[in-house]
Amino acid sequence: MALPAIPALSALLGALITALLGAAKKYLPTLVGKVLLAFGITIATSEIVLPSLIAFVQSHMSGMPRLVFAYVGALGIDKVVTMILSALAANKVGSLALKIK
What we know:
The chain is mostly helical. It has helices at residues 5-61, 66-75, 77-100. Helix 1 (5-61) packs across helix 3 (77-100). It is elongated, with a radius of gyration of 26 Å.
């Protein structure tokens, strides 16, 4: 008795696969593009922008007393500043990349 239901099930399965392939063709290129853009922003920020920002901050912190500089390093404030600068730089580079597009 279950044999007549197989053509309906195969038609339903075929429609589902067709819908999934259509959605993949529609949304996958933009998803891949966004992932590649995120990788590009990350590489550009970490290799080009961030070293310049860190050098700028270090040049302005060179006038601090050694004791204050030691406390900044011991408390991990240097890592916090690097994280904040990295996030700000990634945000600015990302907004520039989206404006160019």
